[in-house]
Description:
Layout: H1 2-7, H2 10-64, H3 67-70, H4 72-75, H5 77-84, H6 92-111, E1 116-123, E2 128-130, H7 137-148, E3 158-160, E4 164-168, E5 171-183, E6 190-199, H8 200-211, E7 219-223, E8 229-232, H9 239-242, H10 246-257, E9 264-268, E10 271-279, E11 286-292, H11 293-341, H12 361-398, H13 404-420, H14 424-441, E12 446-448, H15 449-466, E13 471-477, E14 485-487, H16 492-502, E15 510-519, E16 522-529, H17 536-547, H18 564-575, E17 580-586, E18 590-598
Parallel strand pairs: 13-15
Antiparallel strand pairs: 1-2, 1-6, 3-5, 4-5, 5-6, 7-8, 7-11, 9-10, 10-11, 12-14, 15-16, 16-18, 17-18
Helix pairs in contact: 2-11, 13-14, 14-15
Amino acid sequence: MPDFFKKLSFKKKILSSYILFIGISCLLIGIYFLKSMESAVEESYSYMHQFGEQVSMSTDVIVSNMDRIRFLHFIDDNIKHIIRRSMADKAQAELIDENDYIERALNHMTNMNQYVLRATIVNEYGEIYSNVQTKNETYIEKMGEIDKIQDWTDKNKVYYTGVYEEEIYLIPYELVTSISKIYDINQENYIGTLYIDLNFSNIRQMLDRLIEPSTTQTNLLIFDENQNVIYDSDSQEKQFWTQLSETEETQIRDFLRSEEIRGKELSIRGSRCLVTAIRNQTTNWKIFTWTPLPNIYASGWKNMVGIFSAMMVLLIAAVFLGIYLANQISRPVMILAEAMGQVDQGKVNLLEQAERHWQDEMGLLFRSYNEMGKRINDSIEKIYIYQINQKQTELKMLQFQINPHFLYNTLNTISSIAALSDIDDIVKIADNLSNMFQYNIKGDDIVPVKKEIQHVKNYLEIQSIRFPGKYQFDYTISPEVEHQKMLKFLLQPLAENSLQHAFRKMKKINTICLIAEKDGEDIIFRLCDNGVGMKPEQVEALNHELAQTNTGTLVNHVDKGIGLRNVNARIKNLYGKEYGIQVKSKEGCYTEVQIRIHLLEEDKEVERY
Length: 609
């Protein structure tokens, strides 16, 4: 950190001090804000838990009023006597009187609880007594199916169904039914089953009234024993629950099964939420409350607005003051640094003292700089004169050098004289060398594959004339690549390398094969020889070096001549790092140099490589 601070400009150092002060202030405010948010979260947890307890207590109040109905056979011995006897043993008149008696008793009990719509007793003989005169066989069958799958080992158990729709006096209601068993006084002999239907619409209204005063945007869900939603505070159509994803539903159900009361964070509708769950001991309903964290943070943020507003005013004032002071102190330093930076560009601009009003140490520094600048300008002027004279001398020397076009024309003359004298080898060498000079001095860097291969053939034919009978050259060129474009001077340097290094020990037949073929959107050239080859570790090291060549490598810095590494660098510079040269070899047998290049677009512009 100290070294980094030393590299900063004077102005940046001053501003850094202000920024450090501001940063520490913001850090302290941030810590206070985070603590406030944590406190808000804890308060929300506490409120949600208390709210869930309140809902549970309200539910207990509703169902506790039904105990009178459950213990009706203990309160009125006539009712117990009636349901213990089978209707088959009773006279018609007696049967009517008993039904009226039980109906009046049940009506009296249900009227005492605004949430109860119907009470039905089914005795041990399957005979039905109800305060609502209806013969709804479907209702009895439905309740019977639910009754069968319950575990009634606990004789005091009361089971509550989920919410379902049922018609009573042809009016549709949303009902929740409690199912309990009726026993005699000693809890040994089974007497019958009691079904009490609760009007869930009234229960929903009660729950809605509990939700309305809430200012913390706490939401409520109530699940029955089978984890089906029976109440949703979001809307009567259960809009919230139906909009949840399958993953979110699974998270909530797993949380409900965990029996965790304190709560945790869950992702609900794409937002992090605080959730708590409480199980009502009477109904086994799960009371699930949730509050979005953004709402809690928004509430906490309102408390911080005043503090943040005051701090922002102070911070803005501090920033402007820091910038002003930094400019006043650093401006003369920047002017001097800018003037001194121009020295690297070959000029020293003198500072006009009249334009500067600094009479302090900076003024003294400006005068010293001007005196130094005058001396530097005098030295630069002398150096420029020397360099101009040197360039003029070099130009005159270049005028005496041989022009490549003169060599090209001279070779054509030699070829013509040799042809007249009927000396074929001289004609071939002169023609091939002339073609090579013409290929070299031509300015195009992108040429057809056919011309590049012809350039290699010219070179190898000259070598075959120089060393008659020593070399054999084979060419396998695919017709579909001949008219494709490629970078110039890729193949001849590799052929030259083969002749120089592959045949240090001559064989009876010294062969060089050139193969060119298309591979998808690429062109592959293979230059093979049957020379001395290389050791495996040499091949591995060479391929590693070729693969590591950077696409920004300067080709003049790769090696002294246009060799293997130079060609590889030129290929990667043009075609990309995935292209280039790869070498295969076996010591004493062969060496194969493979070049892979990409097909060039017709309008591709290429710099000189």
